[in-house]
Write a structure and sequence with these properties.
Rossmann fold; 12 strands; 4 domains; 19 helices; Helicase, Ruva Protein, domain 3; about 475 residues
């Protein structure tokens, strides 16, 4: 059978892996440091290596080039208890065959080792240089997020189109930014747009630009977002909302690497990587004839599925700590983040989070403000969620009656407070009060997604944006 080298300074892990792989008929040797691993490589000539990241004296990832020099073509399987995107990217760039997060599933270990041995000659050596640190950070230890990290690490070094799929609030734009930041275009522009947020009449002009006179009031030629992203990456969020004629032009741009501004017949070359995202079922849109099949396959060269927060509950605590630390750092005179009580974390785990990571972020920030620097407790979380209201007409009727009573009380107090003014304007004051509360609740329910909030309210996104600005609400 094969010779396997395990490099890990934790005796219990080394012993369990040796027992597992020895039972499979392999010859297994253990090393607890990089120096010992290099010596074993010279003596053993391993067929595959399982390498821990954190080792005494020297980082395991930094040793991959030396190990591969002593054992050319040998697959290196990286192991870590501290899985994050940077580690995954470093592992892939260093030429690791695969990336496993502790604690291990023993069946998974066996499967990966068998695959590595079967494909030994297919692994490729990686670049020695590490990518620049990403400007946007994805957080997650759960297996679904570890898979996302590996996919980002793999595709970042290419120029393949990527389609990121997932529910609202799962971090699709963060994933797109991470792909850009870890790729060869990191020094060039990253241009993001949400197609659902653009009025149908201006989508084409925004993406591809227009020439003087193409629209009433135009005073000069204007480049579109594809041209502004030249050399870099364009992120097309909510691609499923692209009008049919715009889908045709996006497809043409992908195939020809050219754009033609509205009102012009002159094509302009562009060198742009395209990353698209959607929270819709594009396969269903294909069947319904709402999305072009050729564009779908052109965009979905490398799909990445962002998991819902419900599928990664073990990430709730690290995400909460991350959002709290970021919130505190943005405040004047940034201090150490306050403590998160065990009850607070339990309350976070008990919620459904239909708005996913974005909703969790807003809830933690809200709690931090209410706690005023103290330990965060369950009562600091936003209350009165629409999802908690009883379903059916009875719930709505009861809530409506409560609103009516509250308006009566407010009207009585407002008459006393403003009666002496020349224009008490109680109607305007009441509407403004109710509208501000309604908009905040809609945003909270949608996890901060303004497009979803506007749909819930029955408003277009531009109107919602105008109202939020007028009311001084900054989501």
């Amino acid at each position: 059978m094969s010779r396997i080298l395990i490099v890990d300074d934790e005796p219990a892990i080394g012993w369990s892996l040796r027992e597992l792989l020895s039972d499979g008929g392999h010859t297994v040797e253990l090393a607890a440091s990089v120096d010992a691993a290099l010596d074993a490589c010279r003596r053993l000539g391993p067929d595959t290596i399982l390498l821990d990241v954190r080792l005494p004296g020297r980082d395991g990832l930094s040793a991959i080039p030396d190990l591969r020099a002593l054992a050319p073509g040998v697959p290196v399987i990286v192991m870590t208890a501290f899985g994050d995107l940077d580690t995954a990217v470093r592992a892939v760039h260093a030429g690791a065959f695969d990336y496993l997060v502790k604690p291990f599933d023993l069946e998974r270990i066996t499967e990966v080792v068998d695959r590595a041995l079967a494909e030994r000659t297919g692994t490729q050596s990686g670049a020695a240089a590490q990518p620049a640190a990403p400007s946007a950070r994805l957080v997650g230890l759960a297996p679904p997020m570890q898979e996302v990290f590996k996919q980002i690490a793999l595709v970042a070094a290419t120029d393949l189109p990527v389609l990121i799929e997932g529910e609202t609030g799962t971090g699709k734009e963060l994933a797109a930014r991470a792909i850009h930041d870890h790729g060869g275009r990191r020094e060039r522009p990253f241009v993001a747009t949400n197609l659902a947020a653009l009025a149908p009449g201006i989508v084409e002009s925004e993406l591809f630009g227009h020439v003087r006179g193409a629209f009433t009031g135009a005073t000069a030629d204007r480049p579109g977002l594809f041209e502004l992203a030249d050399g870099g990456t364009i992120f097309l969020d909510e691609i499923g909302d692209a009008p049919a004629d715009v889908q045709v032009k996006i497809l043409r741009t992908l195939e020809s690497a050219e754009v033609t501004r509205v009102g012009s017949v002159v094509p302009r070359p562009v060198d742009v990587r395209v990353i698209a995202a959607t929270n819709r079922d594009l396969a269903a849109a294909l069947r319904a004839g709402r999305f072009r099949e050729d564009l779908y396959h052109r965009l979905r060269v490398f799909p990445i599925a962002m998991p819902a927060l419900a599928d990664r509950h073990e990430d709730i605590e690290p995400l909460a700590r991350h959002f709290l630390a970021r919130h505190v750092a943005r405040q004047a005179g940034a201090a150490v983040p306050p403590a998160l009580s065990a009850e607070f974390l339990a309350a976070l785990r008990d919620r459904d989070w239909p708005g996913n990571v974005r909703e969790l972020k807003h809830a933690v920030e809200y709690a931090a403000v209410v706690a005023r620097g103290g330990t965060l407790r369950p009562d600091h979380l936003p209350q009165g969620r629409w999802a908690d209201v009883p379903s059916g007409g009875a719930g709505v009727d009861a809530a409506g009656a409560a609103v009516g009573s509250a308006v009566k009380e407010w009207a009585a107090a407002a008459r006393l407070a403003f009666a002496g003014l020349e224009e008490p304007d109680l109607h305007h004051r009441a509407v403004q009060l109710v509208e501000a509360t309604l908009l905040r609740e809609a945003l909270a329910h949608a996890g901060g997604n303004r497009t979803a909030a506007a749909k819930l309210l029955g408003l277009d996104r531009a109107t919602l944006r105008t109202k939020l600005k007028a009311l001084g609400i900054d989501d």
